[in-house]
């Protein structure tokens, strides 16, 4: 069974967190089939030890002697390791060559490997395959870093090749890590991970995260961006309306999103007809004339034409037609 542990809350030490939002964030993680979540002592104290059930709790704890202060925490990440199985030792790996030390290692989920930024950047595929083989053999909790923008790919590939593997991620990849939402969806699309589950709660998780951090996630962020299913190009619109799977790895409803046709300078006749059909006016207006108006306005304002502006154009077409009839 693959396991995904989310460590987002360890990256929010500098934010003025509120207990209600942290609790809701954790509950939403559990609804998305996240195996576990990691806390810091500060976040634990903020929640007053009131941890949601149904999720395995981990804590970053430099001093093992303090573990008795935190009932409800199942495992601790520390430099210390004993025979109880409650402590997980962390090892930083800065270069793929350091994986050679795992050649004689036995499967050990009481070990966390952090780093591996360069695992995917070598020209030789053999280097990557040997490194991944050593990781699978040792079976640590894998916590890849993202300095080379490969962390999500490494985490997903580890789980695809090791069906008993465990990875650690963070929402949006905050803290230079693999992105929780990207790894979940990669597994859903490639491995049919939790095929009967909907991941529409990712949209809720995005909203909670934005409220906790007082930030706004860019609209085209993979998986959770509000605009990732917005389409403007005429060819793209025509294709996605005919067969969405040719353009989309997953339907927008799966992640709580919706598709939207945007009008702009790259629009085509299909987009105009689609908009007219939305207003039940598909045979009432000259498509080419409206398309020309849309492109002119889009170029003039340097952006998309809103639905309100399109309705205004339709009214102008009505006036134009009436003027022609009277003349």
Automatic annotation (TrEMBL):
<keyword id="KW-0808">Transferase</keyword>
<dbReference type="InterPro" id="IPR054691">
    <property type="entry name" value="LeuA/HCS_post-cat"/>
</dbReference>
<protein>
    <recommendedName>
        <fullName>2-isopropylmalate synthase/homocitrate synthase post-catalytic domain-containing protein</fullName>
    </recommendedName>
</protein>
<dbReference type="GO" id="GO:0016740">
    <property type="term" value="F:transferase activity"/>
</dbReference>
<dbReference type="Pfam" id="PF22617">
    <property type="entry name" value="HCS_D2"/>
</dbReference>
<feature type="domain" description="2-isopropylmalate synthase/homocitrate synthase post-catalytic">
    <location>
        <begin position="223"/>
        <end position="295"/>
    </location>
</feature>
